[in-house]
Amino acid sequence: MSSSFSRRALLKGAALGGLATTGALSGCSSGPPPGTATWSMWSSSPEEQRVWTDFGHYVERRMHIRSASTLTPSDGYPTKLDLRLVSGTASMVTALNGWLIPTYASRGAHRPLDDLIAADPDFDLDDFYPAIRSISSFAGRTYAIGFDVAPTVLYYNKTLLERNGVDPPSPTEPMSWDTFRQLAIELSKPKDQYGFTCSPTIDDLVSWIYCAGGNVVDGDRDTSPLDAPEAMQAIHYVVDLFTKDRATPPIDNLVTQNASGAALANFLQGNVAFMQNGPWQVLNVRKASFEWDIVPFPAGPAGSKPRVSGSSFAIPSGVKGDDLDLAWRLLKTLTSTGALDIYARAGRNNPARLSAASAFEPPPANLGIVQRILKGEVAGGHPFDVTTNWNRVRLLLAQDLPRAFLGQKSAGDAIDGVMPRLNALMRQHRDAVRQAT
Amino acid sequence: MTSDVPALAALRRSPVAARRLLVFTCFLVTAVTLTPIVMMVLVAFQSDTESMAARPSLWPGSWHPENIGRAFDLVPLGRYLLNTIIFAGGTALLETATAALAAYAFARLRFRGRGVLFGVYLTTLMIPSQVTLIPQFILVAKMHGVDTWPGMILPHAFTALGVFLLRQFFLGVPRDYEEAARLDGANRWQTFIRIIIPLAVPAIATLAVFKFISQWNNLLWPLVISNSDSTRTAAVGLQVFQSTNGTQWNLLLMAAAITTVPLIVLFFLTQRWFVKGITMSGLGGR
In angstroms, what separates the C-alpha of A98 from chain B's closest C-alpha? Predict the structure, then answer.
């Protein structure tokens, strides 16, 4: 019976095909051999890739072991990390942006490091800036060890200020908000020149909110203090710079203005006096065709307390036994003074260790203030307070708040509109914290 | 009521006006479609400063053809393009093979539960790929398929859409051809290979083209499964030009333009299959 025979033959063929497929997959040896020091990191530019390659060489030299890094473009890094964590294929050590640490810690995706730190007399946590230690902690426990940390600062166009007969601001004494506002207005000639640029996002707004004594998150409450007078004062101040004072480049569309680097693009035009940004942009601003420098962030009613951000290395919860020992040694190596010197010499950002601080050096002339701010010698800073669902908070505030910067809504109305949903997110955050502790 | 609208009534009375309106609409749609592509090419040739401007000009102040070389210098774009061809080509090739076999079985072989099984198979079309991403990744990871070509290609080599498309075509092939082949002594397999497949070349080519293009643009799966330049595709590679420290718009768009060229060439070479695919399945562009 040719028909039944051929049907069997088809089925056989299909079965053999399936087996071959399985064999092809399972026969593939993916991943490094056991005993390799594996770590993952975001990396977008070739320059960044070179730094991480140098880190890999450093690890191999110091640990006499093979280093294997998984580098992923920064936009896709959290997605990939999530998948690798849930599938149990994450590296021994994973890099985490500071604002994601509570998210992963509350999920139990990464392990607390306090027991490893306590059992290791060679490891000195005090050598790390207090701000990065705070950022790397969740619910009173250390979940990560920092590799970079920096406060938001004020970049200024020295050439533009000189041309307008304005003295450079003090590198040690932050300007008051009133002085800054007057200067921004004075230096603005709409369509030709502007006093100030920043991104109309919550991540930039928080620096002003902290300086006014406010916050987005209150650890003791189920509601957000974003509508409190202190925070509202800061929001009104910044929104007014955009809408009333016309001291900022006009926002054509929120898509590009919300994108990272929009403020930098404005500043690099050469017709903006001040830019709010972090020292991680020094490498990019060095491409500018004008003289520039940095000064401390303007001081509000509560002083100069801009957002301090950082990034860290953490160990996934699934790492156990001998791998855990190797992971801890790897994490220590990746955050050692020698490794952070490589990072800082490349000009990427300010290293998280005090002992590596000398590597992040001028130019520009005032670059040293970054470490002085972190040490509390000049002005000040405020560790970035985030929730376990910060990405959702950020998305929520990106929906309505920017309309205030366009003048389509008052700042008060914009905040009133988001508060119910924001408070719901805060309750979720508190529940996550309670469950995690 | 449309008859109340004088303009439409006039249009119906005047075929010349209707044709003009149609031409104008086509022109408008073409302009809207082409504008972003033209902008992409123009910005690709701008200088760094010009493309980074808060209000970028459309026409380059000065042309920078060296951006082509810079895009290749910054990332191994050639390697990424080759990887994309392997990924998209491999997936398209495998899918057409597996879909043809399954479609033939659903169209011609009689077995218990065939209709139900086909219905269940079709329901997978309604599940967004994001939903199956985690279990799929876990499966591939457990089978040591991360950062390997089989791990990249195999999970995308079996889809209900391909089976549905080819089954519809096979159902339209007269059984007389197969019966004639049987009388000549051909078995089922020979009939499939020598009679059905040659007849189904238009449908198979359509499926292959659609699959190739969809995989060429696939970002999520290559992003999560590829860990190195040896398997990284162009869609993932383009992300290298975007970082938290800003975006190099001119180089990003130059790289995007370069990676679009093979697709444009493919489109012009296989234009008729596109049209056939849309008329055959009503699922064109999926």
Answer: 13
